[in-house]
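In response to the reviewer comment on reproducibility (Comment 2.3), we provide here a single inverse folding case reported in full, input and output, so that an independent group could reproduce the run without further information from us. The structure tokens appear first.
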């Protein structure tokens, strides 16, 4: 599959540990919600799909981090995820992490790298 870059948003929209930007990807033949946030200085992106039940993590659009800013939290039952790897860190995700997507930041823009599966 050819690799393609798709613009998601401007880089300055993403503040460290702040609100994320929601977007959609084609996943398993369906439009699937995804999100990108800034963590440890870099953009990180995942399918917006909890490992417990496949629902979106953010009840309030773009709110993925819990209070400390150390983890993503699922608003439905409180599963916690490592923002860097997407690994389950607690709660009902029970070892099932988030699916990471490839993104890059270049010239002040955030791009999704598609076709890398
Ligand atoms: S649906 Fe996310 S923790 Fe239950």
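Designed residues, in position order:
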């Amino acid at each position: 599959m050819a690799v393609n870059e798709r613009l998601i948003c401007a880089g300055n929209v993403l503040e460290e540990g702040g609100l994320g930007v929601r977007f959609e990807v084609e996943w398993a033949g369906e439009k699937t919600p995804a999100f990108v946030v800034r963590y440890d200085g870099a953009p990180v992106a995942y399918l917006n799909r909890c490992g417990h039940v496949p629902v979106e993590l953010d009840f309030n659009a773009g709110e993925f981090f819990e209070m400390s800013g150390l983890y993503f939290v699922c608003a439905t039952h409180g599963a916690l995820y490592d923002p860097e790897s997407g690994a389950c860190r607690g709660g009902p995700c029970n070892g099932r992490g988030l699916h990471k997507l490839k993104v890059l930041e270049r010239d002040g823009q955030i791009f999704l790298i598609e076709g890398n599966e």
